[in-house]
Design a protein that fits this description.
Largest sheet: 5 strands, antiparallel
Distance between the termini: 108 Å
Strand order of the largest sheet: 4-3-2-1-5
Order of helices and strands: HHHHHEEEEEEHEEH
Radius of gyration: 31 Å
Helix content: 40-55%
Oligomer: single chain
Number of strands: 8
Number of helices: 7
Length: about 300
């Protein structure tokens, strides 16, 4: 039998008002702490990026999202989630505290809530897994909008939206994929760090390889100084040396360290300039071998 609720006037209303006021203060303090942490993180990141001294550090900071709104959006999203968690926790504690002051028996209520919570958690465990995975992906900055990623080795595409439950990306064929965050167990991000462009320049086997590499090193200095690649090339492209020798030709390899996914244009420009410079220096490329004549 549930006992009757009796008020001890005026203690009971005062206790209820005090409990509500205390919980409001706790929520306010927690929200202020979260806001301070978010603003501090955003400000420190902006200051750190402003101090990037070298060309490579500046380009990588911009490419990885540390110097863009992506970092701020990620931090503020996490802050919003934390504020929602604080609001729910404070509300539950406030309700239970008020019921306790009013004299409600909390044991049956907590038991029923525990059983219902266990049943709900069992039925919605995949949903909880999706949200937790999405939260950790945001915290760890595993990928963001605009990144080229490969998920599970089956789907490769550009990320269009990152939510706490679903990630949406578009593959090279234009097809849109919706992937639950809880199902992502393996992911490769081609847009973080840097990309390396590789250029193979063939020359005739009877040419002076050292002379050809000297010409190419001069070309690499010109490419690195070109304003077009100022925000793409991290370092001056390197003429590595001979990469392959075959019948009638040898190949000189060039490596260019670039911002993520920006190596394609650099490779084309390096190859075009290299061919023109070698031709101007009188160095012949690989000899043309005509296809065998067909028998009539």
């Amino acid at each position: 039998m549930i006992p009757l609720i009796t008020w001890d006037w005026p203690d009971t209303p005062i206790l209820i008002a005090g409990t509500i006021l205390l919980m409001l203060l706790v929520r306010w303090a927690a929200n202020r702490a979260i806001k301070y942490a978010v603003d501090t993180s955003v400000r420190q990141t902006a200051e750190r990026n402003a101090d990037q001294g070298t060309r490579a550090e500046r380009i990588l900071a911009h490419a990885t999202g540390l110097a863009s709104t992506r970092h701020e959006a990620r931090i503020r999203t996490v802050g919003s989630v934390m504020r929602s968690v604080v609001a729910v926790v404070v509300l539950v504690i406030t309700v239970l505290s008020v019921l306790s002051v009013l004299g409600f028996p909390l044991a049956p209520l907590l038991t029923s809530a525990g059983i219902g919570g266990a049943a709900l958690a069992f039925g919605a465990q995949s949903l909880v897994k999706d949200y937790l995975s999405g939260l950790f992906m945001l915290l760890e900055d595993q990928y963001g909008v605009g990144d080229l990623v490969a998920i599970g080795g089956d789907v490769t595409g550009t990320v269009e939206d990152v939510g706490l439950r679903i990630t949406r990306l578009r593959d090279p064929n234009g097809q849109v994929w919706y992937i639950r965050n809880g199902e992502i167990t393996k992911l490769g991000n081609q847009s973080q760090g840097y990309s390396t462009g590789t250029v193979n320049v063939p020359i005739a086997l009877n040419e002076d390889a050292e002379k050809a590499m000297g010409v190419l090193r001069g070309v690499m200095k010109e490419v690195f100084a070109d304003p077009e690649w100022e925000n793409v090339l991290l370092d001056e492209p390197v003429v590595a040396g001979l990469g392959q020798v075959s019948a009638g030709a040898m190949t000189i390899q060039i490596f260019a360290k670039c911002a993520p996914n920006q190596q394609w244009g650099v490779q084309r420009d390096i190859l075009e300039r290299s061919v023109q410079a070698l031709r101007a220096a009188g160095i012949h490329g690989a000899p043309y071998v005509p296809p065998p004549a067909s028998e009539s």
